[in-house]
Each structure stands twice: as C-alpha cells, then as structure tokens.
Write a structure and sequence with these properties.
Radius of gyration: 23 Å
Helix content: 40-55%
Distance between the termini: 44 Å
Largest sheet: 6 strands, mixed
Strand content: 15-25%
Order of helices and strands: EEEHHEEHHHHHEHEEHHEEHHHHHEH
Number of strands: 11
Shape: globular
Length: about 425
C-alpha cells in the first residue's frame, strides 16, 4: 500500500486510492461513519433499515435500474452496516469505474425513501430479524454484546427490534440520512486498477454538492460484564465467555491479535488442540477480538452438547489461567506468522484493500502501510502476549449461553474459577 494516496475535497470528503496495476478490476465504495452505536434506543436499527432503503430507488434510478445497470457490465453491488459504519461498494472492471461511482453517489445522495417501498422493505428487514432470532449462534452473540455493554448503544443489535422497524416513520429516516450522510463523515475509497486523480475527478463530479455536515458523537463504551442465559430446546449449548477487550488505537491491539490467534485462532491453537482434538468436546471453538474506536471485547465461543458443557467451561477457564501465566516464544512466532499471512493474503483482494483503507482513515485519520502493520506484528513477543492476557482476562467476565443449560456452571462458579 505504499502507493496509497488521499485527497480531501473542499466539502471535507476524503478520497483514497490503493492502486493495483496487476489486476483488471477495481472495488470502490462509500464508507459512512454511522451505525448502531450512533442510534438512540428509540431508533435502534435505523442505520440498517436505511442501508436497505438506499437500494430501493433514487431520483435517477428505480431499484431495478440500479441492479440492472451494475450487472449489465458484470459488476457486483453490495452494502453492510456495522456498529460503527455503513458501507456501499461495488466491484467492476476497470473501464466501468465511472458507472460504479455514479451509482454509489446517486444512492447515498439521492435515495427517495419512497413510502410504498419503505412499507415493503420493513417486512424484508423484519424477516431478516426473525431469521436471526432463529439462528442460535446469531442470538448468543447479540446477548453477549448486550451483556457486555448493557443499556448503551454499543450493546444494542445492529438489526434493531421488529416493533421499532415496523413503526419507524419515513420522516425519521429522511432526517437521519440528512444528518449522517455528510461529506466530513464519509470516505470514498477504491483499490485496484484506477488512477488516483481519476477517482478524485469522479468524486468532484458526483459528490461536490454534498454538504460538509455537522459534528456528532457517540455514546462512549462502558464495559460492564455479567451473565445472560436463555433456555431453549436445542441440540447444542452455545456459549460465549468473554472479557473487556481493547480498541483499535490501543498500543496493545496487535498483541491481542496474536494472543487470539495462538489461543483459539486455528487448528494449532491451544483451545482447538485441548478442547476438540484431545477431548472431543466440541465441533466448533475459537477466540475472537472485537475492536471499536474506544474499546473492545475478547471472547471465546463454543458449541457443545448438553452433557459436555459441564466439562467444557471449567476447561476453558483452566486454559485462560494457563495462557495468562505463560506462552512460549515458539507459539508466539507461529501466531505471528499466521497473522502476517492473513494480512498479506488480504492484499490480493481489491475489496479487502478498499475497505481496509477506508477504515484506517476513519479510525486513525491516515492510511497505514503494510510494512508498518507487519512491523507492529513482529514486535509482539511472549512477554507482551502474557501481559495483555493478564490485562484483559482479569476483567469481570461476560457469559452468554443459549440452549439446554442444566449442566452449565453458575456465574458465581465461573467467577471463582477465574479469580
């Protein structure tokens, strides 16, 4: 990413490119600093609903035209909403950059939010919510998030609740879009076969009329931890045991990534070897860091049987104690190699590079070079891994569990094991 360039238009819109001369395609998109953590309880889910509605038609194109025009050139158009941002992006052949930028700019600036389309799309989103509620590993992650960050925006679902979506007025969406889809809170990012000045010129043509916008904040992250259990008639118990994690800007961010890799990030990881390979207690087990601008989570997910969960949780607690006490330089080196490999492999994807560049600008205010990132990974040693494990894994735990829970240890027993 040494050839990355960033320009800022007069209205504050940031335009960034990561050229890849060896490919014939490009990915380009708009990343907007708005997501579920920017929502009040009464409008939870509005960012995600708005993401859907942007595809339903603009002043220039109806929903069918949006789909047909991008697919007529063999391109793909997609979007997603997270807790901290909403993204709209396309992948096209290099000669179709103008069309991709025009469609995306049209969607994020000129969406009509038609009332009839909104009524239909509410049903679609409510079906998405219902489908999620029927998916146990989706539910347990939402419960984990809610319990870790209770009564605050960071703990609420990205999808929102069905009753809120059903009753959300069109005027609310219009106001929210007008307030949040603004130039100073947006990044236009592209990776692939495109010249920087070409994208800057296209952005000037299509986004120069976008208002700069006002500053707006979000509710700070306040980790609490706790216990959430939901008895369900399922074949498996889904369990997450987690702790307060670290944000993107924390100096120990890369140490957490290495820790997660060696602890539960692959078949050679401690959790996989001890819990699945040696004891056969689970099919799926892994650890994960979830980072935000100002905080994060570190968790261990496992799906196991009703009988096996009695042995599983104590075993995970034992492994937490062990990784907090000692890791070898050999396993740290292996984890570093896995992490570096993942970073470097992601460079082969235009979409991955495009999103990574946009996120770096939103989080750090600047792009980060690959050598800079690799250097930070290489600097992680065994001492820094045990230090960060002690720092995180000593926080008040969060337990979320779903399924037949009769053999799952009580929360106070988990606390005693981790003391």
């Amino acid at each position: 990413m040494s050839n990355v360039q960033v320009s800022t238009l007069a209205n504050g819109l940031r335009v960034a490119t990561d050229p890849m001369d060896a490919v014939e395609t490009l990915s380009v998109g708009a990343w907007i600093e708005t997501g579920s953590r920017y929502e009040s309880p009464k409008i939870n889910g509005i960012s995600h609903l708005l993401e859907h509605m942007v595809f339903k038609g603009t002043r220039k194109r109806d929903a069918r035209a949006i789909a047909e025009q991008i697919e007529a050139v063999g391109g793909h158009l997609n979007a997603h909403t997270s807790r901290e941002y909403t993204a709209f992006y396309a992948k096209v052949l290099k000669e179709d950059a103008r069309l991709a930028v025009d469609i995306i700019s049209d969607m994020v600036q000129n969406a009509t939010l038609d009332a009839d389309e909104l009524d239909r799309e509410r049903t679609v989103v409510m079906q998405e919510i219902m489908q999620s509620l029927d998916t146990p590993d989706d539910v347990v992650f939402d419960r984990f998030q809610e319990t870790a960050f209770p009564d605050q925006s960071l703990g609420r679902s990205v999808l929102g609740a069905a009753d809120l979506i059903r009753d959300m007025p069109r005027e609310q969406l219009c106001r929210y879009m007008g307030d949040r889809y603004q130039a100073k809170h947006m990044v236009i990012s592209a990776a692939g076969r495109i010249e920087h000045q070409t994208l800057v010129d296209l952005a000037e043509e299509t986004f120069s009329g976008l208002p700069s916008g006002n500053d707006f904040g979000y509710e700070p992250a306040h980790y609490a931890g706790g216990d959430c259990r939901e008895e369900r008639d399922l074949e498996q118990v889904h369990v997450i045991l987690g702790f307060e994690g670290l944000g993107y800007r924390d100096p120990d961010f890369y140490a957490v990534s290495v820790l997660s890799t060696l602890f539960g990030g692959g078949m050679s990881s401690r959790l996989f070897q001890e819990v699945r390979e040696k004891r056969g207690l689970v099919y799926s087990i892994y650890s994960f860091p979830a980072a935000y601008v100002d905080g994060g989570l570190f968790g261990i997910y496992a799906g196991t049987g009703q009988k096996e969960v009695a042995e599983l949780v104590p075993l995970i607690c034992d492994e937490i104690a062990k990784v907090s006490a000692h890791v070898s330089e050999q396993e740290v080196a292996r984890a570093r190699a896995q992490l570096k490999s993942s970073i470097l492999m992601s460079l082969e994807s235009t979409t991955s590079r495009c999103e990574q560049l946009a996120r770096q600008l939103m989080v750090f205010g600047r792009p980060m070079t690959v050598p800079e990132i690799v250097e930070k990974v290489e600097a992680v040693d065994a001492d820094s891994v045990t230090r960060v494990a002690q720092r995180m894994l000593g926080s008040r735990p969060t337990v979320a569990a779903l399924g037949p829970l009769g053999n799952l240890e009580r929360y106070d027993q988990v606390l005693e094991r981790l003391a």
